[in-house]
Each structure stands twice: as C-alpha cells, then as structure tokens.
Amino acid sequence: MEIFKCLPITLHYLDLSSSELDRLEMSYFVRCQDLQELKLSGNKIKFIPSEWRCPSLRILAMDGNSFGVISKGSFVNMPELTSLKAGNNPYHCTCDLYGFLQETRRKGKLTLLDWPGGWTCFHPESLLDVGVAAYTPGLMECDVRVVVAISVSVTAAVIIATMVLCWRFDVLWYLQATYRIVRSKYRARHAHPTRAYAYHAFISYSCSDADWVRQELLQRLESSSPPYRICIHERDFTPGKWIIDNIIENIESSYKIIFVLSRSFVDSEWCNYELYFAHQRAVGLGYEDVILVVKEAIDPQSLPHKFCKLRKMLSTKTYLEWPSEPSRQPFFWVQLRNVLGKPGAAEPSQDRVSLASVELGSDESVNNPAEEETAIDTVASPAS
C-alpha cells in the first residue's frame, strides 16, 4: 500500500498492472479527482470495496485478479464509468453477479470489454469452468419479491382453503365438541354421582317426521302408566341457549336416546350432530343407551360418508322397524317398552360420563360447590 503514498493526485491515467496488489487504498482515489483511466490487471485483489469512490474514472481494467463477486453496488460511486475489463477472475456465479450483468445490459451505459470470453464460473462446483453468460438462475432463486409474493399467495390460499373446509365440514364445531367431551371425561374421573336423569329418553328426529313423533311416539310413551318423561327439541330445548349446548345437555340428561331413522333424518345436519354426541357418549358402553327406530327402510350402504357411525350401528346393532300394517304395530310398542325399561326402574351406570357437566356457557349457580366439578350422571327415576 506504500505505492499510493508516492502517487500524485493530479493523474489522468494510472497503470498499476502486475504490481502484486492485494487491496486498494480508498483514500487515494477519493483525492484523485481527475483520474479517468485505471489499469489494475494481473494483481491479487480479492474484493471490490463497496466504498470505492472515483468520481471521474471512465475506463477500468481489473482482469486477472482474485475477486469473485461483483454486484449492482460495486461501481455505484463511479458515475462516469463507461468501460470495464474484468475477465479471468474466479467468479462466484450467484444472484449478485447475475443482477449486475442484467442491470448492465438494461442500462447500456457500461461496456464490458472482454465479455463474454474471459468471464467463467469458479463457484459453485457444479458450474466450474462454465461461462458466466450461460448462468441463468430461475426467477424464484434471485427475485425476493417473487418468493415473497408466492409465499404470501400460497399461505393465503392454504388459510382460505382451511377456512372453507372447516366451514364445509364443521371442523371447528367438532373440535369444540370433542374438547368438551374430553374435558368432561377427565373431570369425571374425580367426580361423584350427584344427580338423576331428567328424562327417560331423548328423541332425535327430522322435522319431516315431527307429526309421526308427536302423534304416535309421544302419545304412546307419555300417556302410558306410569308415563315416560320424553325430551324433544321443539318443546324441551331452552330458548336463547346455543343449539349445540341444548343438544349436549339434553342428551346427557336422558337415560336413553331414540333415533327415528328415515331419509329425512339422513338429510338433516342437526340429526347428524345429535348422532355424533350420542356416539361420543356411548364410547365404551356398547351403544346400550341407543335405540334405533327405523321409520323408513334405509340401505346402510347408501348412507353418506358422514353417517359412518350410523352405518356401523345399523350393521351391528338390532333395531326396531316401524310396521306399516296396523296389526303388527302393538308388537312394536311392546318391543320399544322392553328396550326402554319401565319408567322409574332405570339404574345408574357408575361410569356414565356427563357432557352436560362441561361448561356450556350458562351462568347457573350450584348450591353445593362439589357439584361444579362433577361429571358423572346417576340414573334414577325420571321426574314425573
């Protein structure tokens, strides 16, 4: 570097080729305001300083050195530079070099005197001795804006698709329901039975079968002696409470669950939800709480995929079929009463789990603090 201390600052032309230089003295070029042509060929310069300022330089020769990186900012402080000779250097073929060459071609101000013959790749190894002119990286490899745009687009698409799927298949609803069920079962392990069932049976049916339920099923069961206490949604659900919470609470307040099966039942979303909760309650209990009443013949194999639980129950569980012949209907009622059991004769199942004991968003107070933690139902005589 001692050589720069001896040079005058009024030079217009400077040739330091083959001078064994490995770096440059930046302060000299800042003071050398009139330097227009500089030759540094055949040295050992390892990098081009980003702070290199040479305001009047027009011609620069740096071929045959040891630097491998040139970027858009390498000569930004040389506003008058029009000719560059920089071949025979061990170039790193990266996005920086590619960006410099693209900008040079686009602006057309700077001429590469030894392009493309003296420009070859040294790194990476897969491009060794390949001409720099042949190096064409992909748009995503070098343009951060494209990568960001694609990443944002893909992320947005995934989020939107997830939201649509969650909406379409009620995923959030099932997750919330599963959380409540798991929570209630966890709390039930440490709880003690503290209450009786409010209903002997909960009836799940579609609106299309409402007349048959009221005129036949309710009439027979609630007018028997002693009467069965039955829960149906249109009469016994609490007004103003979420339907989901009503379903959970009333299913778990019922000793048995009756499903009135028909094509309309299969087409009903709410019936599917009620079936889902009944299935969760029946886990480990063998579905003895579930009573299937087939009002219309249904081929289990024709059921939609979301009714896989119902398909399994129809294939493995004995069900009651409503006979169209009036002469056979009395036998149907005898069978149904046998499955339901006598009113007031139901005994509690000690391992029965109550979903209704999960926090359902109500503000009801409990007189006994221990009842707030209980999650096990005791079956007693349904209230008259």
TrEMBL record:
SMART domains: TIR (SM00255). Its main location: membrane. It is a single-pass type I membrane protein. GO terms for molecular function: signaling receptor activity. GO terms for biological process: inflammatory response; innate immune response; toll-like receptor signaling pathway. It is found in: Membrane. Transmembrane segments: none annotated. Residues 197-340 form the TIR domain. InterPro entries: Leu-rich_rpt, LRR_dom_sf, TIR_dom, Toll_tir_struct_dom_sf. Keywords: Glycoprotein, Immunity, Inflammatory response, Innate immunity, Leucine-rich repeat, Membrane, Receptor, Repeat, Signal, Transmembrane, Transmembrane helix. GO terms for cellular component: plasma membrane. Residues 361-384 are annotated as: Disordered. Belongs to the Toll-like receptor family. This is Toll-like receptor 2.
